[in-house]
Amino acid sequence: MAKFDAFKSKMESAGMGDAAIRAFQRNYEALLRDETGLIPEDSIAPAAEIASFESLPQSEPKPELLSQAVVIKLNGGLGTSMGLTGPKTLLPIRENTNFLDLIVRQIVDLRKTTGAGVRLLLMNSFSTSEDTLGHLAAYQADGFAEASEVELMQNQIPKIDAATLEPASWPADPDLEWCPPGHGDLFPALVGSGWLDRLLADGVRYAFVSNSDNLGAVLDPAILQYFAESGAPFLMEVTRRTAADRKGGHLAVRKSDGRLLLREVAQCPDEDLESFQDIDRHRFFNTNSLWLRLDLLKEQLAADSGVLPLPMIRNKKTVDPRDKKSPAVLQLEIAMGAAIECFDGSTAIDVPRSRFAPVKTTGDLLALRSDAYEIQENGQVRLHPERQGLPPVIALSDEYKLVDQLTALGVPSLLKCKSLTVEGPVHFEDGVVLEGEVVVKNSSSQPVRITPGTYKDQTLSF
Q1: Is the separation of the CB atoms in 159 and 173 below 8 Å?
Q2: What is the pLDDT of residue 94?
Q3: Which has the closest alpha carbon to 73: 219, 257, 254, 193?
Q4: Claim to verify: residue 256 and residue 326 sit in the same structural domain
Q5: What's the superkingdom here (predicted)?
């Protein structure tokens, strides 16, 4: 296709491989056909019969099975929404321990306690690779320091000029002409990097994939055994939607062929939005923790001419996201979880909320830094048992949007706190205990110090 030649040349010049180029071409051709990717409500049915994590038999981990597993963490994000300029996984949680430290600790513990050589791969981006590998140098003795052993590089794709549908040009900062292709890039990245063939040659058949900022997502031997015995090519971890998840992608069944699929809000027609947000109808959302049979993935890729037919998601942006007057562009993304519809026999499992603890906001980070969570010696992070699986709901005003600003707030005890709302400049001194539903409002510009003591079910106004 002549119109795609300019994109192909640009990607080849940037070192992108054939798998990445063909995946982008498939989405670009869908754009030219004006495919919307929309999934109407009348074409799907709610997902109903799903296996439950609670029903899985708990037995001793099987080293021979664990030795066939790789943990893949999506580590391409910078956490710019929280004011970070480096990898999100290097963000300190507590006591000079960051996300990456805990991920490594989890793998090391699995290896030591089971004797199995569980592998770790970090899917880095061009923005996170250098800093991530620099931090991993401290773990050379554990075998995590060499890029050739731990790094799976994410691809990058050109932004598309919305007016001409040609490659976007921005000479002021050529880096802004590129964008990440979404975590669905996992599949072409595995192929193009050679990692898929390398893992299979090493006897690795099962991959557990999750977001690096989701510290609840650990390789669970019981799920691994269930997945292996099921013979399924693809397993998605889902959990029950709450009111806070109304805009998150949900699981459904396509009526035409009975296959499971993932529908994101960007794929929902406006007239079906009410049904999309009905958490009693569509009860399960994607945690973005997936299990893959790598040998069956290779077979499916061969059947699909090397490119999984993932639904394209069209995002409208400006070439410089900080300059709303810069030229309009289109960014084509694919979602990793959408691959559930590409495999015959894909399935899902309903997991407890404890396996879904992502840190997307400074409010999430405050909760994680508090005593509402426990960090165990094996690197696993869990809500304190007293919380019975329910995290505190935290709403912080714009004064605390960035990580640096959060430091000034302090870390109160949230063990028994149901919800916390903070508006205005506030500092919690050491020894502050919040219980039940607490609101702190400061209408002045001067910080208010909350002195040590227990505050339960009350509103503090200043």
Answers
A1: no
A2: 83
A3: 219
A4: yes
A5: Bacteria
Among 71, 130, 79, which residue's Cα sits nearest to residue 365? Answer: 79
Considering the domain architecture, whether residues 108 and 212 belong to the same structural domain is answered as yes
Binding annotation for substrate: 183
| Domain final position from 355, 384, 415 | 355
Q: Binding site: residue ranges? A: 88, 154, 182-183, 213, 360
**CATH value at residue 367:** 2.160.10.10
Q: Average pLDDT, stretch 258-282?
A: 92
What DSSP string describes 218-245? ---HHHHHHHHHHT-SEEEEEEE--GGG
Tokens of 255: 């009526």
Q: Which two tokens stand for residue 68?
A: 């066939």
Distances (CA, A) of 112 to 104, 107, 108: 12, 9, 6
Q: Note the pLDDT tens digit of each residue in 363-395.
A: 999 999 999 999 988 988 888 999 988 889 999
| pLDDT (average), residues 266-270 | 89
The residue with greater pLDDT, 81 or 247, is 247
How many of the other CB atoms lie within 10 Å of CB of 30? 17
Residue 135 to residue 149: CA distance in whole angstroms: 15
Q: What is the pTM of this model?
A: 0.92
